[in-house]
Design brief:
Two copies of one chain form a homodimer. Chain A is 29% helix and 33% strand. Chain A has 251 residues and is α+β, with helices and mostly antiparallel strands.
Chain lengths: 251, 251
């Protein structure tokens, strides 16, 4: 209950569609996955954040519990394949290896559950318990992920970010200049001000092979004096800098 | 022709199988993708490098040229879907959007080509020109990738890495200690010795949410005096360090 009250929802087929809905105003907020604690960053989210005119205005961390679903009456030993999103298949790789079932990638977890019902497939789907309820499927096994410490961090997108709360995080993107040690110098603007870096991610710059944009998260709000000073210093020492947003920390 | 002569090849279904084949000695070398200049790092390769007892003994950069393949006689306007590896679908997203065809993820590009023939599907597959020759398919369109500057960098795996050539690169993995500024200090061991960092990648530490291992590439060989000094210094200032290998630079 990030929003503190129930709100209307609008499902989107792609991450790009989520960004577009908020940009065009057909949704006030957008929710996109940023990283999973086992599989790492969701690359497309980072690429879209760089293009978009939106801000990260919040973060939510959700515990992931995968279930193996099948048609009502189906037995585990009769399944011939398991469908799911590649991330979910990866997170349950150990469980699936033991079963020795063919794994088939699908667009999303809920979509793979829906497909079992629609096509009446003699197969399994990895999805949530909620998906089993929605599509009238049977839960064959619960909590089949290889590591119980499985969390996904989501970003809440909006046209503007939030005011400081005293327990904030800021996300920025930047490109370094073409000089040796430039990333080290950039991080030095945070370290010298005792600003705690909580994440760094690199993404290729499209059209310029072997050059990268960096995405960093650190504690503090871009309106805090010391953070504003660090961002100013970074702005003069980097080739590109974009403030993606400041928002209350979820932990 | 990385090896300078023709050698026997052994196809593997998964990256894990490539690592295993070299570890068990059924293959002398293994070739795995490390990163694509549009889509970024191949996460599983990095995760496997950390577990494996192998070394990176070489790198190869290959220009990617995707083709749209179909059954002989098929016409573009008659296709009902396009199959390929999610990376290839992502790299041709612009082209596919214009065609307004359903995209269906598959395990690999060549495998999606093979499937068209085997199942006689009225669909397209994104794969190489070579795959069209092998499976007797028609090339409907060549070079359909959104960015022509599309390269994939591969690692050559072996039981041991190479001796210095004077134009080498070294890859290492490390985990920082839990103190603010620890990544900045670690990179300082390279910067202060004028060692040029060419890539940094972070991957989540499994079972410990929101903590990361770092993978860095830099110029030089781990037997070079200045690089050996930097690695020694890093070893004392990091919580974990693994030398993944030194090898001749491909560029």
């Amino acid at each position: 209950m990030f929003f503190g009250r129930s709100i209307g929802t609008k499902p989107c087929r792609t991450l790009r569609e989520v960004f577009k809905s908020v940009e065009e105003g057909s949704a006030q907020y957008g929710i996109v996955p940023a990283e999973n604690s086992l599989e790492g960053s969701i690359n497309q989210t980072y690429d879209l954040l760089l293009e978009a005119s939106l801000k990260i205005s919040g973060e939510v961390k959700v515990r992931v519990r995968h279930c193996l679903l099948a048609l009502p009456g189906a037995r585990l030993e009769d399944l011939n394949a398991v469908y799911s999103h590649p991330q979910a298949l990866a997170q349950c790789a150990g469980f699936l290896q033991k079963l020795d079932l063919e794994t088939i990638p699908a667009y999303d977890t809920a979509g793979s559950a829906k497909m079992l019902i629609e096509k009446q497939l003699n197969a399994g789907a990895i999805a949530s318990e909620r998906a089993a309820e929605i599509y009238g499927l049977q839960v064959l096994r619960k909590g089949i992920e290889d590591f119980p410490e499985n969390f996904t961090r989501f970003f809440v997108l909006a046209k503007n970010d939030d005011s400081p709360t005293g327990r904030d995080r800021t996300s920025i993107a930047f490109a370094t200049t073409h000089t040796p040690g430039s990333l080290h110098r950039a991080l030095g603007e945070l370290a010298s001000r005792q600003i705690n870096l909580t994440k760094i991610e690199s993404r290729p710059i499209r059209g310029t092979p072997w050059e990268y944009n960096f995405f960093i998260d650190f504690e503090g709000h871009h309106n805090d004096v010391v953070v504003a000073e660090a961002i100013n210093a970074l702005q003069t020492s980097t080739a590109m800098l974009k403030i993606l947003g400041s928002y209350p920390r979820a932990d």
